[in-house]
Amino acid sequence: MHPIFRLFVDEVGHASMKATEHPNERYLSLTGVIMRLQHEQESFTPALNALKVLIFGTPNIVLHRTEIVYRRELFDCLEDQALRSRFDNGVLELIQDTSYRVVTVVIDKMEHRRRYLVWQAYPYHYCLTALLERYVLWLVGAHSCGDVMAESRSKKDNKTLAQSYARLYRHGTDYVSAKMFQSRLTTKELKIREKAANVAGLQLADLIANPCMRSMICEKEKKKMTADFGARVVEIIKKNKYRRRYDGVISGVGTKWLP
User: Fold this and answer.
1) CA distance 29 to 134
2) Which helix (H) or strand (E) holds 71?
3) Do residues 59 and 53 lie in contact, with contact meaning Cβ atoms separated by under 8 Å?
4) Which among 75, 79, 67 has a CA at the least distance from the CA of 210?
């Protein structure tokens, strides 16, 4: 069975339960981009490469949000405001015009620890469970099948994520049976790729994951997003990219707040 779709996963934050009130410590988020493999390979990858050549002169550069924001190494050319504007507009155009669906899961680790003094699901597994349940149910609705890919992190993080994926594939969850997982996911193993592999779908997930998480936190705290570019990204995602219910509801379907 060959996959037709792929879920490209990006993580923001870390899984340690030693959380503080600082947003960089308190929250963990997983964002998944659901894209048809043929579209990723034949349409999105060439379009992304064309933008890279236009801005950086080569397709052999891997877009990474943190390095872009702080103009590190190869991205220092973006200090030029005119070039930065062309790059931002090109990225927004790709985010708008590319065909895909998004699911974002955020866990408040402080609230998770406070609420469950005895039972505390490991944050990675908890988030991945919510993400894959929604992916598999989406595949059911699409009468299709797919696999899952994440960018390589630390050896420990890779192992944890791979083990969580394998556990879900083997045992299912309270809401989605193992049989359903196995009928829709084409492999029992999570695909992990190094950043150097220059996977276009993973770069899209990286570019939108942080704004999607920040937007959910701001909504929870009833605050306005202060990052202009991030707000523009989220506006596009909310308008027509998030997975949603038949009546247009996104919460619980395309986004999930834990616990």
Assistant:
1) 15
2) none
3) yes
4) 67
Q: Is the pTM of this model over 0.70?
A: yes
Domain covering 5-258: architecture: 2-Layer Sandwich (3.30)
**H/E run at residue 206:** helix 200-220
pLDDT in tens, 111-138: 877 766 544 457 888 899 999 999 999 9
Q: Which residues pair with 245 in a beta bridge?
A: none
Single out the residue of 133, 110, 114 nearest to residue 28, CA to CA.
110
Report phi then psi at 2, rounded to 5: -100, 140
Number of H helices, E strands in the chain: 11, 6
- Strand partners for 36: 5
Predicted confidence (pLDDT) at residue 20 exceeds the cutoff of 70: no
Picking from 113, 65, 55, 57, the residue whose alpha carbon sits closest to that of residue 85 is: 55
Environment class of residue 123 by beta-carbon count within 10 Å: exposed (0-12), middle (13-18) or buried (19+)?
buried
Parallel/antiparallel/unpaired status of strands 101-108 and 255-258: parallel
Query: Is the Cβ–Cβ distance between 136 and 184 less than 8 Å?
Result: yes
Q: Let me know: does 111 contact 259? Beta carbons within 8 Å.
A: yes
CB 113 within 8 A of CB 120: yes
Q: How far apart are CA 235 and CA 256, in angstroms?
A: 18
Distance CA 152, CA 89 (A): 28
Residues 6+ apart with CB under 8 A from 220: 108, 257
Q: Domain residue spans in the chain? A: 5-258
Radius of gyration of the chain (CA): 18
CA distance linking residue 259 with residue 256, whole number of Å: 9
Residues in a beta bridge with 193: 151
Between CA 106 and CA 211 the distance in angstroms is 12
